[in-house]
């Protein structure tokens, strides 16, 4: 009992400390609470983590780099944005995590993403630490040249802090292979060499890995399929709603359809489409990947489909499986309650922290199978780590080879989450399982590396 109180007090005290130090950072504090809620049983079994001040240290980033990004728009006007890189924890390997270009980017969002990334990356079983970066630059409405000039300016400053054994950025919202190409080109230009492994998510024709663009979405569906299998079920014949229509959403839809599901709806930040015949993923790819169009345009090619303004309306459509693949806190408690009332069986988080804390609790309390982001969307970074391996070995694996490895990684992550949940007294709770399994790996490494 005394030990239990000590574990509870420790978690509570450190949370209060983090809150005091980061009072305005609501997304960061949300991500901290989500992990802390799972960790109490860990400190009962591992008092050495308390003795080594692991929670105090693991919640403070190694460093946060903030910088000015000046660039000239097409009219010759000087524009200034703010750039970030949060190097959160490198106990498991070089900092690794995407770069986000979106007007909402701020310190809280960067820190929550980098914190989550630390545990996600540990779950993959690959030697990568946690980081994340980005800028409040809005790529919407910018010309190709403006995007290039901005990206070059961004990486000119960031190049001082990254490197293939130091910190390896990749894409995220608003950053795909085009932007990674500009960053890679500018980095090599500044350094005067060719450092293949300094970025991942590169074009497979020049240094990237086949299967990277598909990996997060496919990986999410592989994870959910494992979770369903554990409950005697599968994607076959299920109805699915997928929020977003970007990189993660598109390939989650593609894999779900391949496994026999009927994807009925997807969205973007303006609204959602419902197609009673099932979403035609090739049309979404053409609209989004090639033409950069709004999802509304889908209805021009598929007359039976309906477009609705407002992105959260997508959760009012009855479905068996919901895959939120757009952005943080996009699925709130009211949306969860609608999905539950309409009989949803499983939820898989393709985006980072897309469900609010209240939504997650509602799903769990109502017996909905729930696959948390740091496990379910780890396929992208796992294939990024494979890209780093290929770059080091100076060879390229085939798409089938990468996909086979991805399946194994996702199966292993599911197994370790499932086992950790059982071992620590929360059988079937993959939120607790993912938090504990990821935390144990990072905490063990931090103890081994001494206090610093
Ligand atoms: N790209 C990757 O490999 C990985 C991405 N993620 C996460 O997945 C999420 C999506 O990232 P990407 O697909 O790469 O970005 P993206 O930029 O390719 O696509 C984002 C999509 O979400 C839509 N969107 C934005 N806000 C929305 C909202 N409130 N409701 C509905 N749609 C909205 C956008 O219109 C766009 O279609 C993010 O949370 C990201 O951090 C996680 C792991 C890896
Ligand atoms: O591929 C990577 O390095 C980063 C992926 C990422 O940003 C994420 O997992 O959220």
UniProtKB/TrEMBL annotation:
Q: List the SUPFAM superfamilies.
A: Aminoacid dehydrogenase-like, N-terminal domain (SSF53223), NAD(P)-binding Rossmann-fold domains (SSF51735)
From the record, what ranges are coiled-coil? none
Which SMART domains does the UniProt record give?
ELFV_dehydrog
CDD domains linked to this entry: NAD_bind_2_Glu_DH
PANTHER family listed in its UniProt record: NADP-SPECIFIC GLUTAMATE DEHYDROGENASE 1-RELATED (PTHR43571:SF1)
Species this chain originates from: Psychrobacillus vulpis
Q: What is this protein called?
A: Glutamate dehydrogenase
Amino-acid positions noted as binding NAD(+) in the UniProt annotation, renumbered to this chain: 216, 247
Annotated ranges, domain Glutamate/phenylalanine/leucine/valine/L-tryptophan dehydrogenase C-terminal: 209-450
The Gene Ontology biological process annotation of the record reads: glutamate biosynthetic process
Give the UniProt entry's GO cellular component terms. cytosol
Q: Which GO terms describe its molecular function?
A: glutamate dehydrogenase (NADP+) activity; nucleotide binding
- Marked site, Important for catalysis, at 172
A Pfam family that this protein carries is ELFV_dehydrog_N
